[in-house]
Amino acid sequence: MEAIAKLNNYPTSPRKMRLLVDLIRGMKVEKALAILDHNPKHPAVPLRKLVVSAISNWKQKNEGSDESSLIVKTIFVDAARVIKRMRPAPQGRGYRVRKRSNHVTIIVDAVGAKIAAAPIVETIAAEVEAPKVKKTRATKTTKKD
Fold it and tell me: 95-119 in b/e burial notation, b at 16+ Cβ within 10 A?
């Protein structure tokens, strides 16, 4: 049974957070924690806390189960509120500074749990099983004077 944890309105840009999230997606939880421990980027600390929170949520749902088989099933980053500020610019103008923030959602689950196949995978499987038909190119006839 999967468990969810969310981090809302963390004040860093979604792009910076996605760099870290892409590192741990699909990994075992222990390995993901080790990677986040040794990563120098500043969003690694709250992301590590989020993974630990998801593990504890999973433990609450599945009492007596072993958490060594947990993986990061799904993790994604969404854009959150943007605070707009002004910075002085030449000749009395002002440049707009957008201070971005993000929401992170993580879902952890045991390795043995079923993961739904993506529609793309099903489409590719159907193409492989379908017989190949040779396509012929139609010739274009033009009228010459």
Answer: eeeeebbbbbbbbbbbeeeeeeeee
